User: Fold these one by one.
Assistant:
Number 1:
Amino acid sequence: MSDTSTQPPNRILTIIARIEDGLLVFLLSTMIFLAGMQIILRNVFSTGFTETDSLLKILVLWVGMLGAVVATRERRHISIDILSRYLSEKMRQYVEVVVDIFVVLVCILLATHSMRMLLVDFEAKTIAFSGVPTWLLESILPIAFTIISLRYLMYCWQGIGKLLKGDSST
Amino acid sequence: MILFGIVLLLLALLGAPLFSIIAASAMSNFYLADIDLSVVAIELYRLAEMPALIALPLFTFAGYLMGESKAPQRLVQLTDALLGWMPAGLAIVSLAACAFFTAFTGASGVTIIALGALLYPALKQAGYPENFNLGLITTSGSLGLLFAPSLPLILYGIIVQQMNLSQSVTIDDMFVAGILPGLLMLLLLIGWSLHVNRKVARPLEKFQWQKVKVAVRASAWELPMPFIVLGGIYTGFFAVSEAAAVTVLYVLIVEVFIHKEVTLIRLPDVMRDSMILVGAILVILGVSLASTNYVIDADIPTKLFNTIKEYVSSKLTFLILLNIFLLILGALLDIFSALVLMIPLLLPIAIGYGIDPVHLGIIFLANMQLGYFTPPVGMNLFIASHRFQKPVMQLYKATLPFFFILLGAVLIITYWPSLSLSLLGR
């Protein structure tokens, strides 16, 4: 995106982005494939696996959370945003930093508490279905919220950087 | 606490993602009520416990995929061959095609981008006035919301099922209930198109079997799809989630492997793009499961109902207030966020006033459909302004007559419950 894309930090970001995108596409493809199989099994062979149904429901959660991660990267989360267009450019930059800090804090809380939920299931050795431990399925929640909060932290950092040198550039 | 609420509202209006606002409000409420905050995570995880929810990613992807292919062109070609001979034919073609496309793609602004680009120049060339065209296309972007298998209908069904009401509502109920109200909107707009263009003497095209034949042949592969999907749903052969899976597979095979209009290399991008929207909706749905949990635990709907009941005694007055409230809400919030946030609060109150949950859903969605192009912030106004390079002010003016016509439709839908309920026999 920027001219510094070959520098190490940006290369790492590109790799992370690739992984996010790749996993999202893979999981959606799996979902489509399994859902299709299930219909064929049910209607043609009148069988079907209950495990597949459980797996499909988990896939919805994973695809949704990964979608939210990618939405964060592209700044395409749903928001109302009707006041900021009445602000001056300078004011808007300040507001953006405040908003980003707020999102970082909320996502850290969400990540922490989903991690706590995961640990409870990890210690209790809860099994979701056919031997798959529940904590593994839950892991997308802390992972996703951690990535989202880091991403907003980065936005925040960039915003502050812009503010600091903003006076000379404008 | 009130101060915190005001801060949250301000942050929301300043552009903080809605999910973070809802999560913050849920967590602060749980914290004050001395409830362990991991309940928020537990509620989020419930996204993995809703069997019908899979319809959301699947239908969204199918819609994006159709938008990428030349299916919109073929849809317009076919509708034109079938309806183009009527007076104001092209306007009617636009309305019908948009309604159909929106129903299948879930009203996410895709219609204006995919079909508007085709219809707007065509309408202009046919000599329709510019503002009429702009108004028509912008309005049509959300027309079809009430027809199966539109995503808002599905989402409403899912949310209501979460609430464990005594009166059950299935997604299939919503699909049936939307038919007549949706047709009413369509017919009123067709009537308006005829009225506006009555003085313009335009040579009528003749109905030509040849044209129909060509169009049918062009869309031969896509034609069976609505029959399979809608037939499957309405006869009860498919559950909604199965219908969604069938749609995706069908669209994939036709557009990627038969028409080859979307290449395999392009496919991951389409998947990713569509899942961004799904992720944005699901994370809001997830955190609002938590906030809903608090709302119901704290018995807020009952308290609200009791307060409102003191001032509003009749069902009629309540419905009038509801319409006004929903119009404002629809202009501020997108349909998906509005659904997940408001239905848990509104539905128990509406039931208290003796309104059928299915009817409330149709009222809600019909109002939200207007919200898409209610000034000053209706989303489709901006999409159309951007797409057709016209000032937003011009779009306000252009959509105004359409707004009042559909407002009429919304009022009829609101005060005539049997329009929504008669097909269900409720």
Number 2:
Amino acid sequence: MTSTPLPSSLRRRFLLETSGGLGTAALAALLAQDARCDGDTKFASPGLLTSTHFAPRARRVIYLFMSGGPAQMDLFDHKPKLAEMQGQEIPKSVIGDQRLTTMTRSQASFPIAGSRYKFSPVGDAGLEVSELLPHTAGIADKIAVIRSMHTEPINHDPAVMFLQSGSGVTGRPCMGSWLSYGLGTENANLPAFVVLLSGPPKGGQPLLSKYWHSGFLPGRHQGVQFRSQGDPVMSLSDPAGISRNDRRRIVSAVNDLNRLKLATAGDPEIEARIDAFELAFQMQTTVPELMEIADEPQHILDMYGAKPGEASFANNCLLARRLIERGVRFVQLYDKDWDHHQELPAKLPVKCRDVDQACAALINDLAQRGLLDDTLVIWGGEFGRTTYCQGGLTAETYGRDHHPRCFTVWLAGGGIKPGIVLGKTDDFSYNIDEDPIHVHDLQATILHCLGIDHERLTYRFQGRDYRLTDVGGHPVERLLA
Amino acid sequence: MVAFNRRNHDGMSGGVPLRTTRRVCRLIICFSFLLPFPFCLKLTECMAEPPDFVRDIRPILTEHCFQCHGPDETQRQADLRLDHRQQATTKLPSGSIAIQPGDADGSELVRRIETDAAAAIMPPPETKRALTPEQKKLLRQWIEAGAEYVEHWAYRKPVRPAVPLTHQSSWPRSEIDAFVMSRLEADGLKPSPEAERTTLIRRLSLDLTGLPPTADDVDRFLADEQPNAYKKLVDYYLASPHYGEKMAQDWLDLARFGDSSGYQDDGERPNWPYRDYVINAFNAGMPFDQFTIENLAGDLLPDATLSQHVASGFHRLHRYNEEGGSDPDEFHVTYVVDRANTTVTTWMGLTFGCAQCHDHKYDPISQRDFYQLYAFFNSLDGEVVISKSNSPPNISVPSETSRPQLDAFDREIAAMDARIGEIEPTAAPAFERWLAEAKDADPKNAAVEKRGAIGGVVARSSPPAYYADTRFDAPLTLGAPLTAEGKIAVVRSVNNEVNVGYFAKENRQGGHHLGFSVAEGPRFFAYVGLPDGTRVAPAAIAAEHGVEYSWKFHYDPADEGLLTFELYRGDERVGLSEVHFTAEQRGAGMMLDAFGMSYRGFNDADAPIEMYVDEIEYTATLDGTARQENFDREPAWSDFGNQQSGHRFGYDASATSGHSPADLTVEQILALAPEQRMKEHLVKLRSHFDRETFPALHELKTQVAKLRVEREEFLKGIPLALVWREMATPRPAYILARGDYRQPGELVERNVPAIFPPLPSGAPRDRLTLARWLTSPEHPLTARVLVNRLWKQFFGDGLVRTPEDFGVRGELPTHPELLDWLAVQMIEDDWDIQLMQRRIVLSATYRQSSTVGRELLERDPDNRLLARGSRFRLSAEEIRDGALAASGLLTRRLGGPSVYPYQAETYYSDKEDSPGEWYWPVAPGPNLYRRGLYTFWRRTTPYPSYQVFDAPSRGECTVARATTNTPLQALVTMNDPTFVEAARVLGERIVEEGGRDTVDRLTFAFRTVLSRVPGAQEREILSELYAAEFDRYRTDPAAARSVVSHGFAPRISDGDPAEIAAWVAVATAILNLDEAITRE
């Protein structure tokens, strides 16, 4: 039984975008691309963009997201002067008109809490890295560190949304969704945008699926969470008693019947449905294989500190490499519990141990496979932390509140100039002295590395053209290789 | 390289940069069916006509010019405004005139767009909005032709257009058909034949009830040969109780109805009485104007009924942030903005939100307009940052059975109060006299007693002792060792009434949840208070979610007078304070007065640490300095730290030996100076007096108090609905610069946007007036927006394909006259929704087959011209409902609380925090099979299968859902437990009810799922599948047994498992068909 083929132009149009909302965009794109070759797009469609705006330096992205907001002055933004001023009030002039969270707003005293960690210069640029991150120090020449990131929201939820979607308001598409929309996926059997969470949860803010939602973009651009417990993808496994052969026969029958329907009803959507069932059937095999890291050589597992069968950030870094090897466009790794309001000296080293080795291993592994050249890796949280102590400062401990005015992010790989340090904060790691880089600038830079002009990847929704960078953002030239 | 910005929805009008030859061939296709306004069949005609302002010119101006020369005053350059003809044709400060009607060469606009000079060219290159040569040509031609402007259609009040005459007169059944036919004739198209009857009944049933028809209904309809059979069917479905559910599901997207708060913690926020209200309103055929008024202003109606109050909860349905540290001012603005935007999107279909930060760039809506409308919604009398799920204002919504009980309580209480009122005038003065006599009692002994009762710290506010110190049974002198310990209860209140005093959180099932939780950040201070009013040894800890804290106090004179105070987080000691008392102090018999703990709220900038020790209030600042103040006022509940975020706190009074004022004996109270007596003391004295002197009165008071407690208990089982209650004095509203809550500017009054008809003069500026204004016949948008949504319900798309945007950047209507005709009719029908729906579904247009041939598909892929019926995928909930209905599992009960159908246990596994807070209690029973609209809606992490099928998060108002088509959807319908179980039960039914032979059984299965009989080829495919599966399961009985055991639903067949399992495979296939999840 065969389907009656549709005219190729229509077929392409329906396969490109099957949503009502996108129909016009896809049509416009088609009309604009009069001479475009008639390739088989299917779900490995190249996305809305059939060619990028610039020559792309990166083809895919891994974002290592440290949810909660790591303390920049304890990790990358060394401020030796603070040790001398330990316990003194932070000058009012430094805080200025800064809006504080209601957690510390009412403190009568804002004592300076210098970092208790040792810093040493590493790499050609003399990047000062905290002793908490020895492995990251080892890749200093492969990464570009921005010490002058700043953002707008001061609470977690809006700040994560801001970094992910360019707006603190829920409802806009996240970065991975934009890339899925713009560039599509390179692997028909896998989603373009995959999310991995370090499990099992140990504390910190919840990670909500809205952080990888496609907002007003069609649902297929949503991030798909690959889970460490249960089915890696919801509903992936066949139910008990249904073998692969059973499933094959059922899917074949469904598709044969759907082809009959297509022949009579004529609705091209049915053809997309037939493809979807075939792809779903294939995903049922490819995804579990992909998640099986036990087939990696022992030295690779050791390099990451990964342990098959365990849910961990290290395992996820290794999975991220496997995902991008297979053509996934955007892998978002979330690690949580970086929100150290209190007891920072007890908590931060633990978090650093969770991620340090695996982050460095990921960079080195990508490099040794030649993948780092066209993979962009980003590390960072949603904001920084305050230099002043939250609550009472004691000899034993201190805590830090949220701080949107400066924080550190590093990037590596495709399109990024390695081994540089960008930006300078004041002596208190409180305000930015040089090269402020806004979240929208970071987003514009990420898109730029992928060959996209951030002002030209837009989507019209409810009468307005939206883009990832809202109404701002400039690619940061100095970061670019 | 190509431009990737989306072009205008109205097709070519944005000026697509095509080579002319290509444009010619596209023009014939696109112009003829994409454009609603004057269109033509031949290219020559197209070219001969002057450009049409609406179709050709305004989109160019909108896209390329209005950013700087449009309605937004702050962005306007060179004082040039191109959206108004008068201003565009006026001499500019520069001396030139942008548009000289009839004289393109004399128009500065033409000069600037045609120039090559980089400094002069418009739009400026950096805007990346360059015009194409064709767009430039169009502008030139338009100015040459006189530069006529046409006011945007949607801002003009609809006027009933004449019903067009059509050449073909037998097809149209109604005015709707005449409009559609007239358009088809102009395009040289013919309508499609009427759909098969099986398709029609399925279509009607799905469109009007959201459920597929039952096999019986299909049979009855097929057997009904009367001419009015179809009409009767329409009435039948409109009268179905499931009609209200279908209508509610769509409305709840607009209303952003969810069961959780929607931000980080995303705690539960049940408000299902509102959902019931909506279902009932639609089922009762409530006119839309009334529905509008009740939703926006039910609370303001005179003698508002309970259901009208519940309806006013519409604007309580937005998300609420519970995150610690959130700024109430910020979120107050966020919520009010949401209310304003939701109102405009829902009733007026405009992109109002753009004007939050600046004047709208395209539509004539100013920032002032925005905040004037905003001002209607900014005076809710309730908290901003909440932790309490159904935070006040709220209302108890008793069921029909609980209402009489509640009334009985009220009657009885009123009767007793009346009897008390009779005795009280005698008793009260007697009590005063008694008190006066007692005043002279010698307080000395009591004072000593009191001293002995160290501590006795209480909070003097009506909620009981949430803030108790520990006091010791015996005087604590520093001469003897002492040890004490207790737990610290950190409480996040879900329901004030329940929690205060219990320090426990009532969970949904009515039990008490002892895992305390608070948001991050609050601090507890432990201290020891000395009799001289000073406080020593503060130790601080921060409370965290779901962690239990405890304290230990130890004093040992032998250990050099060491007093330690330790704080524990679980088993770990996290705080230690030590004080040494000197031998001198010890020797002097110094006594400790009390010790206690305090809390710093984190949402009130000025909140001090407050503590109450021995009736002395100490106010301390964070650095630990304490000062003493006289306890001269009643502390209000809100004084305690964190009213804004609602995080309450306190000791677990049961774990410590906290005491309340009432613990003092009558003698001790009498010994206090009158000014020292607290309210509780007086109550106790009065009670004592009554018992001694007015025993009947005492008995009555005891009884009524008991009744009141019982009534409160009873109320706890009654749901609370969120409602609106207006503040006595409205909050002032300001224009916020750049929409920033920190930058209030000019004060504004409540008003409606200036381009619309004004509010009636003299009417109060409140939500009620606003709601009436929205549904006044003068309003240009409300009726159009409503009929457009109703049209979408039956055709998959509205006549305006951007139902959320009727503004200048929205799409033009495909059938403008029809839209206006329907809108006027809607108003004249007194906003009767069912009447309008009946009109639509009775039309010949609606009844067309959705089958499409290749030619028509090429000409009109999106079915804009309506030469066929529509075919579109069902919604996420309906897909699930359909599988449940086909299997017979569907629970058809209406209304009630949200339910928890199958969901993988691991689905929330990555959600941290208090274990169980996000529990999802899947249990066997009918609630597994309720319709999709009753599924608990966790806004940040929606039900997995709904998310995959494009259901919105309900975090914000959603007008239209996307319909995508993805492999993940196939995984849901194949493997999600609900679908797996439905297939299993259907497989059993096939064997039990489908007859004996394979053909009969296949027919039964097809009819049950798809409402039609299978064709020969279809039977062949499924017979083969059945045969193959039967063979396979015969040889693998264990697999067969697994298949027949799927789900909690009881087995309904004790037949051969291999046979059933093979039919389950067939059922799975049918349930997975495109047709099963599509309305055609």
